[in-house]
Amino acid sequence: MSATLQNLVNQPYKHGFVTSIESDVAPKGLNADTIWMISTKKKEPEWLLEFRLKSYEAWLKMEEPIWPNVHYPKIDFQAISYYSAPKQKPKLKSMDEVDPELLRTFEKLGVPLHERMALAGVAVDVIFDSVSVATTYKDKLAEVGIIFCSMSEAVLDHPELVQKYLGTVIPSSDNFYAALNSAVFTDGSFCYIPKGVKCPMDLSTYFRINTEESGQFERTLIVAEEGASVSYLEGCTAPAFSSNQLHAAVVELVALDNADIKYSTVQNWYAGDEKGVGGIYNFVTKRGLAKGVNSRISWTQVETGSAITWKYPSCVLLGDNSVGEFYSVAVTNHYQQADTGTKMIHVGKNTRSTIVSKGISAGHSNNSYRGLVKVAPSATGARNYSQCDSMLVGQNSGAHTFPYIQVANNSSQIEHEASTSKIGEDQLFYFAQRGIDAEAAVSMIINGFCKDVFQQLPMEFAVEATALLSFKLEGSVG
Amino acid sequence: MIYPDSKIVLEVRGLCATVNGTEILKGLDLTVRRGEVHAIMGPNGSGKSTFSKILAGHSAYEVTGGSVMFEGQNLFDLAPEERARAGVFLAFQYPIEIPGVINSQFLRLTYNTVQTHRGKEELDPLEFDDYVREKMKLLEMSPDFLERSVNEGFSGGEKKRNEILQMAMLDPRLAILDETDSGLDIDALRIVANGVNQLANKDNAIVLVTHYQRLLNYIVPDYVHVMEAGRIIKTGGKELALELESRGYDWVGVEHKAVAGAVA
Ligand SMILES: Nc1ncnc2c1ncn2[C@@H]1O[C@H](COP(=O)(O)OP(=O)(O)OP(=O)(O)O)[C@@H](O)[C@H]1O
Ligand SMILES: [Mg+2]
Q: Does residue B256 belong to any structural domain of this protein?
């Protein structure tokens, strides 16, 4: 690899800074007492404590998965602290009272707070309540009956809704990390769109990660009732040095008849340094249940961070004519490892799914797409289209594709396309010969490669994603 | 056209270069002045494309000796993109495909980048669209090519036209056309040659690398050079190309060795 290409892919992590946030932390280790303590601290109802304890028991009997194409030293689950409560901040009356350190954080991210807040139609679930903004959006959402709050609040204020849906898409015993999350999750987001309501704006949790340590075992639940629709944005451009190396989130989506949920993620956790030291292990379980007829679940993800990513946002297409979509860009650099993809489980008649996956590997990284398309006997007339493209930057990175297809009826149509390409010296030379430097060239090639996925992102998120990819692969040369 | 007292655009002295340790250029000399059209001919593998790519700054080649001055400055002081901005243009023998990058966006980026570095105004997408369509007419290219990925799936001849389109947009000081004629059908050859002729003026210079006289029927060279084994071993006027066409290259080599022997 030439010096230019080498430099390009070896940009230091641009979001590498730490915001100090006070918290009180539980002692290390996990047992029934820890779970009881979490539940008590959070003043949870009995049923939730039971849910946690059952999950914990299931977890004890489970083994860490070893099938993903990723490698890391064994995790000592007794060396982790499972609770860390953020100190309650006093309510702020104006922007002037926002912690200047926090403001600087956003500025470093290239997302000045005022601009961010001014972005039309984005309701931010802000923890440091800036009265003006948060209240405005909350009021607006409340008017149409939408509930959008933290999981902790939801447990206290809307227990019947949480109890009805929590764990129904991803049962505690689903997998090792989902079980762990179900036992010890501390917070996350809850979102409920009542019957017939089209959410008037995109919902975003952009700021939450910086202010709360809910990132470690985050729990999110989104329910769209009949005919409801919502677009949800999850962005975690986190401080580089999270105190938790292991992150195991669970996200559950439920779409009833004719409901539509679009879930978009831009993930930029600390990825470790260029030698592969440090970085977050991001072991996430995300699944949407397209429960009703004509319902739709759409996942879009831009994965750029974490040392290890293990993540398969999936759709269970239960309702007849329901639709599942998965659009993914996964970028790995240095010694990052990603094993990501999706599962499309067709159960209802005439269900349709689309998979578009773009993997970009640079440096010494390893990027795997793993996908399952499963068509049950009942899913007559089901259709799937999958397209998995890999791009290699440099000589030392790896790209792998593991598509699994299981079809149990003969009226279904499955199409799978795959390709591997390379950003070669000769392409960069062609750009250079036309006056375009390597940085701009890589950016243009990558954006072209990812176009089909970026198109799916809400406008302002697409801009952010493009910028993130630039951070990741380019930065300023030299 | 040869103009008296015209300024030197390119001055190559004793250029030596290697690729992966193998010497390809072995003391190449060439002087090109404004307004001139030079043709470089020579057998396969003699180093014509290597020379072109070295002028453009390809990193695979190592310059081991000699000098190249471009418009009075050391060409090797400039990075490849700086050379392009300063007016060195290479139409590639094998233009590379760039899947996913839309041609119109690529063309606009290259145009605006070069314009900016020359202290000129950028064009917005609408203005650029008008501008590029105008240039495409010159080459009788369909606007459909704007919406496709750069060179992807273009036929050999279409790729070559896309190269000359870029030459037309970027208004280079020195244009090196590496076998632009190969792969062009008879009509396309005429159209592309016409395009190049319209771009030639007294302030720029053109170096044509070609194997065939037929291109030189359209673009008449002021000088014809024969390259062999990494050197220019003979230079003549446009008649030299005709002679090469009928007699081949062997006699040039023999003659060169005889002269070299006599000198030694
Ligand atoms: N990257 C490379 N690695 C090894 N050898 C190379 C490389 N590039 C060029 N060469 C060799 O250098 C010599 C000159 O090649 P070049 O492409 O410059 O020839 P040319 O005169 O343009 O030939 P043609 O008329 O066939 O286009 C050839 O023998 C070629 O194989
Ligand atoms: Mg050649």
A: yes
Pick from A67-71, A131-135, A336-340, A442-446: least confident: A131-135
CB–CB of A284/A314 below 8 Å? no
Q: Is the Cβ pair B100, A440 closer than 8 Å?
A: no
Confirm whether the ipTM is greater than 0.90. Answer: yes
Please tell me if the CB atom of residue B229 comes closer than 6 angstroms to any atom of ligand 1.
Answer: no
**CA of A41 relative to ligand 2 center, distance in Å:** 75
Identify whether the C-beta of residue A209 lies closer than 8 Å to the C-beta of residue A215.
yes
Q: What is the pLDDT of residues B3-32, one digit of tens each?
A: 888 999 999 999 999 999 999 999 999 999
Nearest to A427 among B58, B98, B102 (CB): B98
Ligand nearest to the backbone CA of B48: 1
For residue B54, the enclosing domain spans 8-263
Q: Which two tokens stand for residue A232?
A: 């949800």
Q: Which of A453, A314, A436 is nearest to A391 (CA)?
A: A453
pTM (predicted TM-score): 0.80
Tell me which chain B residue has its CA closest to the CA of residue A442: B101
**A444 to B90: CB separation less than 8 angstroms, yes or no:** no
Domain count within chain B: 1
Ligand nearest to the CA of B43: 1
CATH number at residue B186: 3.40.50.300
B2 assigned to some structural domain: no
Cβ within 8 Å, pair A436-B113: yes
B99 contact A CB<8A: yes
pLDDT in tens, B127-151: 999 999 999 999 999 999 999 999 9
Kindly state whether residue B104 falls inside one of the protein's structural domains: yes
Q: Is A396 helix (H, G, I), strand (E, B) or coil?
A: coil
For residues B73 and B70, what is the distance between their CA atoms, to the nearest angstrom? 5
Distances in whole angstroms, Cα of residue A97 to Cα of each of A61, A89, A90, A101, A131: 49, 11, 10, 11, 11
Cα B261 to Cα B264: distance, rounded to the nearest angstrom: 5
